[in-house]
């Protein structure tokens, strides 16, 4: 770019965007000190990356319980949906991070949000990926309805849970 004086103008990077990206990277990698530094420097706690995922969603998917606690204690929104409609609870359930699911439930997250593509809930995902304890937690502690049907396969979570239980018995 050339300014009015005719010299080349170097674009200044958006400093906030840089701290926001550092925040989500720190959450995904489990770097709690970098995450704290990003927040101290003004990163938006609910910033959504290119895929629409927040730091909480990334930490939940990767299983970083302490980072999830810190983000929640600092005031992040727990039910933000990503680009595909997924939530932090769905990502924790899909990857079998039971303690993070418990934390999110205890914090008051919505249990039966459905993602956009297949209409799956956290319960569908926990059952589909074989996480029996997480499946139980979502029903018993979270009150997830095993009768919510996905719009893709029209299978309800009870059938998924039975499938998981059958696999574990083998």
From TrEMBL:
Keywords: ANK repeat, Repeat, Transferase
Methyltransferase keyword on record: no
Listed PROSITE patterns: ANK_REP_REGION, ANK_REPEAT
Matching InterPro entries: Ankyrin_rpt (IPR002110), Ankyrin_rpt-contain_sf (IPR036770)
Gene3D superfamilies linked: Ankyrin repeat-containing domain (1.25.40.20)
ANK repeats: 51-83, 84-116, 118-142
Gene Ontology molecular-function annotations: protein serine/threonine kinase activity
EC number: 2.7.11.1
Name listed for the protein in its UniProt record: RIPK4
UniProt source species: Mytilus coruscus
Lineage of producing organism: Eukaryota, Metazoa, Spiralia, Lophotrochozoa, Mollusca
């Amino acid at each position: 770019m050339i300014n009015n004086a005719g010299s080349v103008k170097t674009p200044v990077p958006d400093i906030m965007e840089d701290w926001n990206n550092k925040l989500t990277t720190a959450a995904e990698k489990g770097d709690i000190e970098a995450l704290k530094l990003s927040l101290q420097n003004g990163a938006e706690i609910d910033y959504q990356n290119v895929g629409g995922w927040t730091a909480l969603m990334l930490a939940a998917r990767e299983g970083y319980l302490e980072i999830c606690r810190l983000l929640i204690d600092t005031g992040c929104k727990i039910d933000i949906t990503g680009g595909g409609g997924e939530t932090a609870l769905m990502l924790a359930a899909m990857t079998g991070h039971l303690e993070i699911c418990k934390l999110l439930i205890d914090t008051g997250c919505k249990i039966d949000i459905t993602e956009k593509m297949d209409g799956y809930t956290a319960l569908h995902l926990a059952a589909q990926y074989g996480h029996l304890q997480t499946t139980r937690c979502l029903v018993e502690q979270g009150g997830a309805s095993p009768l919510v049907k996905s719009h893709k396969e029209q299978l309800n979570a009870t059938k998924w849970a039975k499938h998981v239980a059958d696999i574990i018995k083998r």
